[in-house]
Amino acid sequence: MAAPILRKVAARTEPYGLMPMGALHDAGRTLVLVATAPDFWHHFENSPEMSDGAPDPVDRWSQRILPRIATGCGAREVVYPFGGPPFEPFIAWAKASGEAFDSPTGMLVHLRAGLMISYRGALVFEGQHPLPDANHRSPCDSCATRPCETACPVGALSPDHFYDVPRCKAYLNSAEGADCMTNGCAVRRACPVSVSFNRPPRQSAHHMRYFKGNAP
Fold first, then answer.
1. Among 191, 190, 90, which residue's Cα sits nearest to residue 138?
2. Cα 64 vs. chain centroid, distance in angstroms?
3. How far apart (Å, rounded) are the C-alpha atoms in residues 38 and 19?
4. pLDDT tens digit string along 3-31?
């Protein structure tokens, strides 16, 4: 059974297409990591941030919605994975929660979301609230075929080297990269856990446009 604090956060985040995706104790605080749920895009695409034409609509939506959730949950504050430098150590927190791990390609993989994990913020609570046992194994440990290792059409994401961003960008800017641009990163889509998480292609396409546009 989920800890009371996680049940409370789950109830407050669900109406916005968000969900708790791990929690941890840190320096006398309890952090609950909040990420997008499979129905997130249904909620977000009808928001004013999506249609106002200003930059960073998902980040601005998060900054509007998460403080409401924090107030309803009794959290002290919200911290975000964007807006730096300096940046909060979300990857370290995710791993410390026991729900996220390094995948063979170097990207973070989550127990429930696979390679589609997208943290929008962390709710910060005073004190150390009871949390469930975090003794989980990476979903990659039981993945027999590991399709993520060979899914990238140009080998930009591979267990053999760090993420080759220029190679990825060059492919996305070519006619051959249309599938990744329209449906999302082929590596993320190849993960069996990602498939079960069911992110809409239009959500992935939005993030791919931002990624391509903001890359050097």
1. 191
2. 18
3. 9
4. 999 999 999 999 999 999 999 999 999 99
**Cα pseudo-dihedral 180, 183, 185, 186, rounded to 10:** -80
**Average pLDDT of the chain to the nearest whole number:** 94
Q: Is the peptide bond before 139 cis (omega within 30 degrees of 0)?
A: no
CA distance 9 to 150: 37
Each residue's pLDDT tens digit, 43-65: 999 999 999 999 999 999 999 99
- The distance between the two most distant Cα atoms of the chain, rounded to a whole number of Å, is 53
pLDDT tens readout for residues 87-103: 999 999 999 999 999 99
